[in-house]
Amino acid sequence: MKNLLIKGNKTLAITTGILVAGAILNSFAGDMPINYVEANGSSDIANLSISTSRQVEETLIVKKYVANEPPKYTPDAQKVENVRKYLAGRNAPLAEYAEEFVKAADHYGIDYRIIAAISVIESGGGKHNFKAYNAWGWGKSPFENWTDGIWSVSAGISRYYSRGLTRPELIAPYYCPPNAVKWAQNVNYVMNQIGN
Question: Is pLDDT at 104 greater than 50 in this prediction?
């Protein structure tokens, strides 16, 4: 048994030496495959696991990708609840899209309440629409669905934000020129009712 253990250790040492030499040569040649040997702790040479360099490379790539994968985005639950509660209290069809309002606002860097507030002022939260799924009086076209409307109007409002127009009273002269002061007051009021 002792001879087998010594012979096994010698074989392991020789195998490791060959693999290290192969790795060094591969770094120069680039075309030689590397084998990766993993021992499971026993002295039996038959219990070695050998993988090709391609398998090792694929494993490392997969692990790197998983490790660098961004965490899944979850919108702030309190903000979602604030929007949902306010719109539901008004029996607004858009109440069930509260999470979408918050996601779009976070994505575009705008106040999470503003798109919901504008929908309430312009259409009662989706009750009386200008065009199909257009609860905001935005442009002259309908939207494909509520989600499309929320994201499109959020993108549009973000363009005002990028110019430093980050409050309803600053946006109003462009959004609703004939009634800018009253529109801004109403949007601010609804935003405050939704919450902070």
Answer: yes
Exposure string over 67-77, b if 16+ CB within 10 A, otherwise e: eeeeeeeebee
Collapse the DSSP code of 75 into the 3-class scheme (helix H, G, I; strand E, B; otherwise coil) and give the result. coil
Q: Is the model's pLDDT at 151 over the cut of 50?
A: yes
pLDDT at 146: 97
Is there a single domain that holds both residue 103 and residue 170?
yes
pLDDT at 51 over 60: no
Query: 114: Cβ–Cβ under 8 A, 6 or more apart, which residues?
Result: 105, 157, 168, 187, 191
Cα–Cα distance measured from residue 60 to residue 100, given in angstroms and rounded to the nearest whole number: 36
The domain of 133 spans 77-194
From 63-67, 99-103, 141-145, the region with the lowest mean pLDDT: 63-67
